[in-house]
Amino acid sequence: MTSAVRRAGQHAGRLSLLAFVVLLVVTGVGGIDALGDRMLTAGASRMLADAEPGARSVRVVAAQADDAAAQDAQIRDAIASAFSGSEVDVARRTTDDLAVITPADEEITLRVLDDERITELADLTSGSWPQGPGELALTEAAAQRLSIAIGDTLTLTHGGLEDASLTLVGFWSARDPLDTAWLGDPSVVSGESDGAFGPAVVLGGSLDVASASPTVTWQITPATFDLAAIPLLQRALTTLDALPDDVDPKRQDNTRVRGDLGETLQRQADAVAATRGLLTAPLMLMALLGVLVVGTVLTTLVAARREETVLLRSRGASVRRLGSSAAVETGLIAAAGAVVGLALVAGLGAITQAVGVTPAAWLTAGPAVVLASGVSGILTARVATGADVVRAEDLRSDAGARTCRTLLPPTLLVTGVGALATWQLFALGGVTGPGGAADPLATAAPALLLIAAGMLAAMAAGPMASIGEHALRRTAGIAPILPLRQLARRMGSTAVAILCLTLAASSAALVLAAPSAARAAEQQALLARLGGDVRMIAEEGLDVAAGDVATLPGVTGAHEVLRTSMTIGSDTALLVAALPEALGLDEPLPPNTAAAIPACITRTLAERLGATTGTTFTARIRSVARPATFEVACVVEGLPGVGAGLGVATDPTALSDAGAEVPPNELWLRSDTPHQTAAQLREQATDPVRILTASQVSAAPVASAAPMLLTAGALVTAALGLIGFFAASSAAARARRGEQIVLRALGLPTGRQRALRIGEHVAVAAYSVIVGAVLGAAVAELVLPTVLGMGS
């Protein structure tokens, strides 16, 4: 034991470097994985919280059965079965539209609701909550529209309940009109929706008497959220689709499932998969560099101990004992580094409230210790048996070509896998597969391409040096011929040095390119989903004109838009009819021809149809009986409100002139204060509408985690690359110590030799950094737009 400690102390520097490298890899991989999990969870939670009210929950809707209690129990049991394993809140609400007469003898429709959560969702502004079956509380906005006050009565006018009355006892206002419980109902703010006034709150159970057929809604909302909940909830929603068939097979109660929670979950899944796909590159590069650096450090350690190992072998030590002793020693050192790394990851998790030591950290620490132990034992055993002795033929003039041939098979393998991964990425159009889950092969595409590029750069260095040597052979002087010759003939350790630094530089280039690519992807997604800063979607036609909202504070532009589906052959596309400035077209479309409507189409549709400028095609527009013929006036990459999918854009006047008169159903607004504008639109809306801003459709809460995590990964990768470069360069210099005496005998001073070696290292470093940066930028340009598409 004393001898082993003394031997380890003689090489404390290299052993400390080994521990530090293991620590760096474990901390880098584990820390980025833990922080990434926390930041992605927080971002996905924010996406859910910012989604439209109707897109944060799913609902089971039915007509109330004769036995309401049995119906409620049956549906709750079915919901619990579908969402087994997911924590959800289930709330029951009963609603109906009642015909009543106001004190002014005006017959109106009153929307009445019975919800046990009302005191949590709303504040009483005056009066009191209903205490009996003949009382109701109304929103102040609805009361103002009806010109009624507390104490006034409303008379029911239907069926056997004629002349029954409801007394107004209080006013209330919603605490948050965007709460998922209100489902975006505009009457909560404006007091009216689709001709019905309200909502009016009645005492629990009152609707069972006042209404002949109330509608019952069971609203299902996620109670807690983490990334693991996304696939569980998606599977639960798929199971929930079968609920109407299970509880109401004959549709006696018109049971159905409504809600857009599934769309929100898919947006979250796409955003998380895209961001993780981006983070996969630094994690894989860290792991690969860790392997290279650990191997290089151990190679130099074993080489430094060669004389000592040979001496022990000559004194009777067995090869097995020497190998196992070296393996145990380096295993303990690597384990110490891994333990410190895991402790740092745990501490980082405690400080940042992250997950802590994730499985990725353990999966990195264990193999790192095993790798260090195994490599040290094998290399020491080779020295003990004399298998590491350099033979004379290994110093031939073509020895460097052997490195190239050695690197060729793994380079071709990695390049082939990288090409396959890239093909998969482009075929899927992102990193998510058809089922919505991340595709492992597509996710690994950026990292595999960077690794392949780095290996190609390392493999090409030897032949390039050889070409340079032959080109300069007739020049006078020993420089730069000698450094080029050394590179061409001794590329083993130099190739590792080039690979380490190239991977570090390419990772840095990827990090620098990622923010601009992310911004471009975000803008493309917002263009496809919004068409402006605020988008108002009417279910049954607009009840407000663009001119009416153009004067709102902050609004800088407003356009009425028709956005509807159309059928072209067997394909379904989106038709967008608006003025050229709303569509982002540089020039107005030409006037109608005698036979066709001029239109711009997306490149995706053009490829689908085999269309070019001047091509005509026939399509059926939804709600228009007669087919319409369009002529392609231009082909664009994407359209507002459509994105890069199948889309057609034209002028509304052109549609009208061709006899396809369809009223606009959306408003696209430009606003300096989009959230304020959206709130003002809700206050004015009296028909069912959806009002969207960037916060409802953006993936930025998740994607914003990428820059910090990528930067951290790039720093760790750069540190590993530099360590690997200097360790490999040191190993190469050690292997060439015998040349110094020969060169000195030939008249080359020691100082001159040192200057040539420094120049050689600087040239190799410059080559690695420049090539790595160029290749990294090229890979970023190639794959990042697709990786960050996020389902846009």
UniProtKB/TrEMBL annotation:
Which UniProt keywords are present, listed alphabetically?
Cell membrane, Membrane, Transmembrane, Transmembrane helix
Q: Which domain of life is it from?
A: Bacteria
Extract the InterPro entries matched here: ABC3_permease_C (IPR003838), Macrolide_Exporter_MacB (IPR050250)
- Where, by residue number, does the polypeptide cross the bilayer? 283-304, 325-348, 360-385, 406-426, 446-465, 495-514, 705-728, 762-784
Q: Name one Pfam family in it.
A: FtsX
Cell compartments where the protein resides: Cell membrane
Topology of the protein relative to the lipid bilayer:
Multi-pass membrane protein
Tell me where in this chain the ABC3 transporter permease C-terminal domain is found. Answer: 285-384, 714-783
Its primary localisation, in coarse terms, equals membrane
According to its UniProt record, which protein family does this protein belong to? Belongs to the ABC-4 integral membrane protein family.
The entry's protein name is: FtsX-like permease family protein
